[in-house]
Amino acid sequence: CGQCLKAPSVFECGWCIESRKCLLRQHCPSAEQNWMHHGRHNVRCSHPRITKIDPLTGPREGGTRVTIEGENLGLQVKEISHIQVAGVRCNPVPLLYISAERIVCDMAEALLPHSPGGPVELCIGVCSAEYRTLSTQTYSFVSPSFTRIRPLKGPVSGGTRLTVVGRHMDSGSGVSVYIHKEECLFVK
């Protein structure tokens, strides 16, 4: 439905609700009630579906940028009325939104100290059953920590490549490394 309705209007496509197909008006039975198209007010595809979330882990402090991909994820970013990732609010980033296919949002802080992981829940327009979806993938809160740094010394002038080893080092959506308040260029 979403892919059909976002097609350029020159194709004159519309979503035929009864047959659940993208059709020209004349091929949709009872088109007056059944055919959704660009010119109709409050056009919204039902049955949103999440196919992928990335990343699947992040810190409780928030700030992780989560990408949600799927089908029927609204035709405009303003249609997204509710997004929670593992029970935590996630705020849509309008510039990264792709109509019907992709929502990118920034995680708020998880207020519970031991927040369990969970699915992504989102609603398009209203949060009724036909406009609400849950992801099959789950998101987990983790705390990155490091156990070892090599080498332990280097020249004051810089340029030493450091290797940092630890747990959950790939969580979240961005990496920043600081050594004594100085930012270290992250390589990989």
From TrEMBL:
Domain of life: Eukaryota
Membrane as UniProt keyword: yes
InterPro entries, per the entry: Ig-like_fold, Ig_E-set, IPT_dom, Plexin, Plexin_repeat
Record localization: Membrane
Name of the protein described by the UniProt record: Plexin A3
High-level lineage: Eukaryota, Metazoa, Chordata, Craniata, Vertebrata
Entries under SUPFAM superfamilies matching the protein: E set domains, Plexin repeat
Gene that encodes the chain: PLXNA3_3
Record organism: Xenoophorus captivus
The keyword Glycoprotein is assigned to this record: yes
Domain IPT/TIG intervals: 47-142
